[in-house]
Every structure is written in C-alpha cells, then in structure tokens.
Amino acid sequence: MTPRLALSREEAAEAIGISLDSLERYVLDEIRVVRMGRRILVPITELDRWLDEHAERILGPPRPFNPKGTR
Questions:
Q1: At what angle do helices 44-54 and 9-16 cross, to 10 degrees?
Q2: Torsion angle, CA of 13/51/26/65, rounded to 10 degrees?
Q3: Residue 23 to residues 3, 37, 59, Cα–Cα distance (Å)
C-alpha cells in the first residue's frame, strides 16, 4: 500500500483531532495547500509543521481557571 502524502480537509481535521470548522478557522490560513480545481489537499508535512510550531510544553500543575484574567 502506498503511503498518503496529502489529505482532504476533512481527513486533515480528523487526523489532528479537530472539527472541519476549526481547521478552516485556525489552521488553513497558516499552511500551504494544494488546489486541484475545487478540491483542497493538505500535505501531511504541512500538518506536521503546524503542529510542531503550535505545540507548547505544560510544566507544573495546571493553573486554576480565572475568568477575570488576574493572578
């Protein structure tokens, strides 16, 4: 079986665990895509890059929720 190099928008959203709406709102503007007519293909390498750039380390215990934004 040949490995996939690109995914549809729906597959890309599923692959990173978000909705299609969230993919379109937060991710697609920051990555390169391949357009084939109306179809948009998302290269897996672009998803990997986006995830790597947006990943952060969480150190220590979680902070309590503070709706007013003060410490």
A1: 40
A2: 110
A3: 22, 20, 27
Task: Report d(CA 44, CA 56) in Å as an integer.
Answer: 20
- What would you report as the CA-atom Rg of the chain, rounded to the nearest whole angstrom? 16
How sure is the predictor about 33, in pLDDT bands with cuts at 50, 70 and 90? very high
Distance CA 70, CA 14 (A): 35
Q: Is 25 helix (H, G, I), strand (E, B) or coil?
A: helix
Query: pTM above the 0.85 mark?
Result: no
